[in-house]
Design a protein that fits this description.
heterotrimer, A mainly alpha (293), B alpha/beta (257), C mainly alpha (329), B: 257 residues, alpha/beta, Rossmann fold, 2 domains, six-stranded mixed beta sheet, C: 329 residues, mainly alpha, ABC transporter involved in vitamin B12 uptake, BtuC, two-stranded antiparallel sheet, 2 strands, globular
Amino acid sequence: MWDQILQFLITGVTVGATYALVALGFAIIYNASDVVNFAQGEFVMIGAMTAIALSAGDGGLPLPLALIGAVLITIAVGILLQRFAIAPARGASVVTTIIITIGASIFLRGVALLVWGKDIFAMPHFSGEIPLHIGNATLLPQNLWVMGGAALLVMGVHYFFNHTIIGKAILACSCNRTAAHLVGINVGLMMLVAYGLSAFLGAMAGILVAPITFTSYDAGVMLGLKGFSAAILGGMGNPMGAVAGGLALGLIESLAAGLISSGYKDAIGFIILLLVLFIRPSGMFGKVSAERV
Amino acid sequence: MALLEVKDLTKAFGGVTAIADLHFKVPENKVYSVIGPNGAGKTTLFNMLSGIYHPDEGSIRFLDQEIIGKEPHAVAEMGLSRTFQNLQMFFNMTVLDNVLVGCHLRTHSGLFSAAFRLPSVIREERVARQWAEEALAFCGLEEYSRQHADALPYGVLKRIEIARALAVQPKLLLMDEPAAGLNDTETLEMRSLIRRISESGITVLLVEHNMGLVMQVSDRILVLDYGSRLAEGTPEEIQNNPQVIEAYLGGEVQYAV
Amino acid sequence: MRRLAGFYILAAGVALLPVFFPDNYFITVVGVTAGIHVILAVSLNLLMGYAGQISLGHAAFFGIGAYTSAILSARYGWNPWLAMLTGLLLTGVIAYFIARPILRLKGHYLAMATLGFGIIINIVLVQNGQLTGGPDGLGDIPSLTIFGWEVDSDLHWYGVIGVAMLAVIWLSLNIIDSRSGRALRALHGSEVAAEMMGINTTTTKTGVFVLAALIASFAGSLFSHQQGFVSPGSFSFFFSIELVTMVVLGGMASTYGAVFGAIVLTFLPELLVVFEDYEVMIFGAILMLTMIFLPQGIFVGLRNLAYKLRKKNATPDSIAGKEQNRGTA
């Protein structure tokens, strides 16, 4: 029994780490531009798919090079998204921006469908598939890659926002755009950086987890929704809350799948999310704001 | 008889006291003003009187009934209406529709009868429209009736808010800075509007920064300082109160009209 | 009557189309689907466009209606009308109980909660195979019978759905132009001000949520009996998004906008079939571009433009008297 639970925890943390990266991407874009980016899941898909495409076949690049290429391509997609879809619609309502990013996600999915078709693709594991044993639970080296990679990225993002000028400038834009502009911050550029960073995190999530979960043109949909749930769970706009939300959601789903029913694991995740929202409408770590009259 | 009676009212926001141990009585059919520097707690007071905030302590009795614990719509039902310092227009509607919303409590047709547009609904709509037009006319707004609220100047919007609040047929009208942002002519119009409202039998509770206006229209004035009562009395008493002059007016008041 | 002029034009169009194109696939087959979409979009527009409460889970109520009808009539042999009524009852109860906690939320939180609700219902449909047929769906759903007249051809269905659709549009137009409708719009404009006018915003929100859900459930039951087959895919998250898109594409807070959006989005994929593999991509691009360049929606955007052009030759009165809803989104 305990071995089983340990196994669920390992799966949960691995999946949760992926959710955490997607949620972190959500939080960064939300903070920088007040937009909930429904195309976040597509970054994950594009990262994984381009990595596979670049490394595939005889003429393919070696894996590390392919990974770097995939990350760069995804970042470019993120920047283009900001520049040509989000920036022109500044000042639009919540619903309008939601539809724009949903449109973007459908568009990107359509492009992926056109390029790669409906097949499911696998990516080679980074360092073999010989499982490690902890008691009776098994752990693939790739699980460690996911957990370690996610941990490093989260720490990196934390450092970026708290200790670098660019990171602080992005935070300034999210606090007050006009004031940021007045003190000489290039707001437009900061937005591009935020979207690029968010796309980078999505691509990394996709690349790290693709060897375990496989990928296809529509793999981003559910991941995007889970990332959004995780970000909401942690309190929208709170990056470390989003990470905690992602890990919590991954663990809940994994335990629910193992102990209750695998068919209902997604439903249980969303039920918990609803309950959290009903009890604390601003998420676990969100600030409660009062309306000024 | 006091229409509104406030006792021992206290409200703090995260350790900062906005209103401390406040008490006052608003007599019926008078214009009662609350003045005080920015941050004195005037809007907080209004929000408690209208049920938007709930005080930490104290009591607010309106028509001998406790208001505290009631939701704003229930307070409105008792006969209290208000305008807002930051405009709270329904910008998605025409001026007439804005004021028609004010007639909500005076009309009764429900969703079902409205969906099938029963004859009773048509009759009620006609009557409500008349009421709304009367309220608009009272505030001198007939010409704007069919225009969209999002396309009108600030001064007009302020008066539409008043017309909307009057359409409720309140016994007590709370006016939060009606003259703020108005030019001199508009302020004069506002003064006569407040007088006409009072003459029509509605008690007015006014928060305002324009001292000239306050002194001219008020029957009694309450001076707030850091959420506490500094003084209360007739305009003459307030103007001659050394404490008020010292603490708030700073000794260099000009009663501009 | 001037107030309903647009409605009469629409009704005439619905009635005349099959006269000129009696056996046209686009009229009697796609047209029926469009009619169901119109019902759904109009109901969602009451909630989202007028009352300002976003819902990314509206397809769930459509699904509850459709599956209640399907299960009761196909598995248990109930009369389709009784099944439809039961569906409405069940939807009403569910909507009533989730409305309060869900509608306390705002903005993105509300979007997430409704989305989550929609996904949960969809998973329940997929997982309860012995009842719902699981992912493969449920077939052999009987058609409707109206006073002994069986609705058994495409053209018959066109008539039934057409009448139902016009009825829903008429109800929606009436509601918006009434005390209840103003309360909805007031809620959207400013919640505090609405409360101060004596509107109980909590019950008003609950009311419109339940109403929108009931209309969606009604559409679901019609869909079920018309198709004769239901599967969870028709009620997924994607369909909820499509419904939101219909409302927004036409223009929020305009009943005719919702009608327009629903019709366009139903026919668009049919037309895009020509492009085969490019279909998904083009659909996404159209969605993005419309929202970027015409954020008030195509219908409302074009109408406002027409008003502006006319304004040069007309008095403001004749313009504003038309309909009280410009782009409010």
